[in-house]
Amino acid sequence: xxxxxxxxxxxxxxxxxxxxxxxxxxxxxxxxxxxxxxxxxxxxxxxxxxxxxxxxxxxxxxxxxxxxxxxxxxxxxxxxxxxxxxxxxxxxxxxxxxxxxxxxxxxxxxxxxxxxxxxxxxxxxxxxxxxxxxxxxxxxxxxxxxxxxxxxxxxxxxxxxxxxxxxxxxxxxxxxxxxxxxxxxxxxxxxxxxxxxxxxxxxxxxxxxxxxxxxxxxxxxxxxxxxxxxxxxxxxxxxxxxxxxxxxxxxxxxxxxxxxxxxxxxxxxxxxxxxxxxxxxxxxxxxxxxxxxxxxxxxxxxxxxxxxxxxxxxxxxxxxxxxxxxxxxxxxxxxxxxxxxxxxxxxxxxxxxxxx
Length: 356
Ligand SMILES: Cc1ncc(COP(=O)(O)O)c(C=O)c1O
Description:
Elements: E1 6-9, H1 11-25, E2 29-33, H2 35-39, H3 43-49, E3 55-58, H4 61-69, E4 76-78, H5 88-93, E5 96-100, H6 103-109, E6 118-123, H7 135-147, E7 151-157, H8 170-180, E8 187-188, H9 192-197, H10 199-202, E9 206-207, E10 233-245, E11 250-251, E12 257-258, E13 263-268, E14 285-288, E15 291-296, E16 304-307, E17 319-323, H11 329-336, H12 340-345, E18 353-355
Parallel strand pairs: 1-18, 2-3, 2-9, 3-4, 4-5, 5-6, 6-7, 7-8
Antiparallel strand pairs: 1-10, 10-13, 10-17, 11-12, 13-16, 14-15, 14-17, 15-16
Bound molecules: pyridoxal-5'-phosphate.
């Protein structure tokens, strides 16, 4: 018998969240971003749930080929383009749209027989200083792609560094427009945060939502629920043991938690080897039989300890929700000093996945 832990993935929630993205996109086309194993939800599973998207955006050629092998015919955007000259023949063969972001990629393409036509994205660095052409080498990229009859279309894209934060998108958007104003092409700008908060300015021709599709909020000051999003992944388990503590007794590795009074500890079958954040401190919420309780002491590899003092349903076998339905993963991430992105992506392979 497997341990009681499992991740339940709701395809209804995934579909619902895509509908919300579409509403904000208001006619712009939608790349469903499904990199990192569909943000931990399973690549093929999310591709199926997002069949109403206009295309899929990801990173790895292996993943793109898995989608094609599974019969996916929609456009696939390779968010980091290609990595070596050996990758280039795969572009036309598997109808992949590379994001071309540097002169080295232009050099790998130049003069190559691609075997047919491909669409391409040209990524502009509008201030994030991660990937993308700057104004001084942008025209080299643009002209090379324009002059190559094997390039069917070029879309200009950029990525916002702080659409979810205080800076917003204004400065990057202005800079992007200023440096690209003479180039006639469709645009793709918005991630989830830009789409949700600055839809009118950023939706352009193609949007690229990721995290919102999985039911999480990109914003620290606005919950997923308030945005109308539904959690797609619920991580749940059970209490496997109870401990009655006297005042002054301590809990877990390092004895880091000491009971102030008599208390009952529920030991839950979930630890950092399942993807639960080791840095979740005492006080991080969990749901025990539907009621809020709190983690106490250190998270260990396979277990966490929860204060269930006085809780009626707290018995061995009681259901526990670590995150998901009724307890947002954003809240757990905030307690652990990270983001929902990281928690979702780090769901461990050992956790059985159930689809609903
Ligand atoms: C280029 C690009 N576009 C879109 C996204 C989706 O971002 P989010 O998950 O914040 O919506 C990402 C994710 O990192 C990205 O790198």
